Amino acid sequence: MIKNSLLYFFAVLHLFALMNTANASPEDVLPSIRPQLAKFSEGFQSIPADRQKFLKKGALFIRSKIKAGETAQITFICTHNSRRSHLAQIWAQTAAAYYGVDGVQAFSGGTEATAMNSRTVDALKRVGFGFTDSTGGKNPVYLVKYSDSKPEIHSFSKLYNAEGNPQSNYAAFMTCSQADKNCPVVEGSALRIPIHYEDPKVADGLPNEAAVYDERAQQIGLEMAYMMAQVKG
Length: 233
Description:
By secondary structure, the chain is an alpha/beta fold. The chain has one domain: 3-Layer(aba) Sandwich (Rossmann fold). It contains seven helices and seven strands, in the order αααβαβαββββαβα. The protein has helices spanning 2-22, 34-41, 49-67, 84-98, 118-127, 177-182, 209-232; strands at residues 72-78, 104-110, 130-133, 142-145, 153-155, 170-174, 189-194. A four-stranded parallel beta sheet has the order 2-1-6-7. β6 (170-174), α6 (177-182) and β7 (189-194) form a beta-alpha-beta unit. It is globular, with a radius of gyration of 18 Å. The model is unreliable at 1-23 (pLDDT under 50).
């Protein structure tokens, strides 16, 4: 009798946690983006187990920082900080808002600085993000709007340890194998997590260019949503 009561109690707790995750704070995200995030939540089981392991490691880092009353700073690193690292940063910050995970600051950077690729911008626009080119030039600073209640994300290409990015006690997510290989030491990072993605650059100038960029944006968005759902749940 007692055993059955305990099982029921923990089952209710588990259900409550799932409900909290599913109905967190979608109103903090632009209405144009919410349907995509809701769709992501239905596809978490499609993420391979080995990738789930790394994403759960990131979630544990975030949760531990928040529990300690600290800001969880996470930096996504790619070679040129032009495609995958921006997709990861923007989706991570957006997913944190959607799932009501306060105290997360997402950044991006590269081992070199070039520019945020216009194809990356276009892929995120197709999802529903708002973009404003605030500076122009070869490496423009884009103001990325994902919420009506939260500050815009300032997106431009920079080194991972550039001024304005975390200098210590942050989690470094390596989004490309080349940066992971060429950067054996990520200065100041407390944790290093490899989450390599195929570069959509392979489709530049080809008929399927937009489809490939959309596919990569969807994959990265799905995984960032999964990580923030793990933090919440």
